[in-house]
Amino acid sequence: MSVAAAPLDRRAYIRDVSARTLRRRQIRGGVYTTLCGLALLIALVPIVAIIGYTVSQGIGAWSVQFFTHLPTPSGIPGGGISNALIGSLIIDGLASLMALPVGIIVALFLSEQRNAVAGAVRFIVDVAAGLPAITIGLFAYAIVVVPQGHFSAFSASVALAVLMLPVVIRAGEGAIRSVPPDLWEAGIALGVRRARVARTVILPAALPGLITASLLAISRAVGEAAPLLFTAIGSTFLVTNLARPMASLPLVIYLDGIQAYPDLQRTAWGTALTLLVIVVLLNLGARLLARRMRRYTR
Amino acid sequence: MAEASRATGPRRFALGDAAYRRALQLAGLLVFGIFLAVGVSLFLQAWPAFQHSGISFITGSTWDPNSATYGALPFIVGTLLTSVIALIIAVPVGIGAAIFLSEYAPRSISTVLGALVELLAAVPSVVYGLWGLLVLAPWFASTIEPRMTWLPFAHGPTLGVGLFLASVILATMVLPTIVAITRDLMNAVQPSAREAVLGLGGTRWQVVRHAIIPTVRTGMIGGVVLALGRALGETMAVTFVIGNSNVIPHSLLGPTQTLASLIANEFTEATEPFHAASLIAAAVLLLAIAVLVNVAARALVWSVSREVSELV
């Protein structure tokens, strides 16, 4: 209004000034946008470099016997990581058996109840999600290895199970919450007991999300070496006895990777590639299921 | 409970409602007890060391198992320094990348690149360590670090491994945390806030500067503190590249040790008196720092949105 009432030269002046500030603002915006784009490029460098190096170094170590043979001492060719593959499978499998059912029940608890107990549990789970893995390894050492008097695969499973719990509980709670409440209400309205509604309606509906949660927890555990250092401790033999020290993939990467021998470093790269493939597959699976879950609930 | 289980209908294992509620609570309390036990059992195991060393466990800078002298100050300093330097590197990069992903990149590109950055979070820390030791360390020793000697605090031999490389590795490890949280916070800003700035004739950068950043600031700080917690406790990657020297670092390029890498390096060989207990005491310190940092971070992220806090 006031602009329209202003004299002509004043309107021209304002148009001129606004054009100039616009240009200035656009230039400044362009600079910051470029900086942000640069930051994104920098952020992408490590992922490309790590994957590139692991693939190019690791693929050279891969062969059939790499997966089927036992390790050999440095200097003797033909060694493999079969014991670590089986060890990881056993340790992580047992940890999953301990952590996943309990985690999913606790996720159900957190999504169904809103009281002081639930609040306290949620708080400690959230904080536990950020606990350093190595302290959890020491915990397993203190409560399993010390009483037993020796290192064991079982103690490693206990450590990894404790590590998996917060992951599966938090992701699982999200999955259960994304089931439409109408389903639960319909069950309750029919007079069905809550336990049965949970078992026959809620958990099946949340299943893809619960599998996602489990896969994320497993992928976290499968790559952890720190809690295994003083529990499974590693082995060069094929061990299936849970009470004895056992090899595992992340331990092989650490124990061989810090050696100065090129052939052991090669084994470490080959194992790193194996672990990377496993972890990426687990994460992709989790992502795909999560997407399906979202479509399903919509 | 008895009345509840006498209810009608064909039933197999269905618990009564009250029993079911209590069973769920029991599972919750079990998990609560497990995590409480982590702290309590470590503290009990560490108690002899705290009694042996007293306050000098925190203030002493000599760590010599042969004379049963345990001062963890170098490791506390090493832990804090590596993490803080990592954040100094990762925060500008992470926030810039998140701004670009949420505000500028087309949606399809943003999804793919975002997933790629988040893939960094899935890479096991031993793989970071192996890459750092075998690829980055030689390159840093020959190319990067000789060019850094003009910086203050960056003197001494360029070994590759040491405080600086450990910080760089930690920065790449916490990057996805910062990017993911910041991007999700920014995507959750209401469209009306953007439209207000655009309606006043603002440019896209002014939208970021005046609408987006003030809205997400608190949550963003929470994400950064969470990343700090992750960096403080990281063990394997640091153990590979820290140089494993039990001294307070005198240079940005010098070797040092963190609480976590100290435990990883020494625990299985701890046979001297009080050595194992002192290492567990170091773990208790680490645990205390991690809990404090995490509670602070969660309080900040919680204050913004529960949904975002579930992502991390």
Notes on the structure:
Chain A is an all-alpha fold and 298 residues long. Chain A has helices at residues 2-5, 8-61, 64-68, 82-112, 116-128, 133-148, 153-177, 181-189, 194-222, 249-257, 262-297. Chain A has 2 domains: 2-53; 64-297, MetI-like fold, CATH 1.10.3720.10. Chain A is built from 11 helices and no strands. The longest helix of chain A is centred in the first third of the chain and has 54 residues, at 8-61. Chain A is flat. The mean pLDDT of chain A is 90. The longest helix of chain B is centred in the first third of the chain and has 37 residues, at 17-53. Chain B has 312 residues and is mainly α. Chain B folds into 2 domains: 2-53; 72-309, MetI-like (MetI-like fold). In chain B, helix 4 (73-104) packs antiparallel against helix 5 (107-122) and helix 11 (259-266) runs antiparallel to helix 12 (275-304). Chain B has helices at residues 2-5, 17-53, 56-59, 73-104, 107-122, 125-144, 163-187, 191-199, 204-233, 236-241, 259-266, 275-304, 306-309, and strands at 63-64, 69-70. The two termini of chain B are 39 Å apart. The interface between A and B is large, with 94 and 100 residues.
Q: What is the number of helical segments of chain A per DSSP (H or I, 4+ residues)? A: 11
Low-confidence runs of at least 5 consecutive residues of chain B: 1-7
Radius of gyration of chain A equals: 27 Å
How would a textbook summarize the main sheet of chain B?
Answer: 2 strands, antiparallel
CATH architecture tag of the largest domain in chain A:
Orthogonal Bundle
The profile of the biggest β sheet of chain A is: none
- Give the neighbour order of strands across the main sheet of chain B: 1-2
- Judged by helices, strands and strand pairing, the structural class of chain A is mainly alpha
What is the tally of beta strands of chain B? 2
| Largest interface, C-beta within 8 A | A-B, 94 and 100 residues
Helix-strand sequence of chain A: HHHHHHHHHHH
In CATH, the architecture of the largest domain in chain B is Orthogonal Bundle
**Overall average pLDDT of chain A:** 90
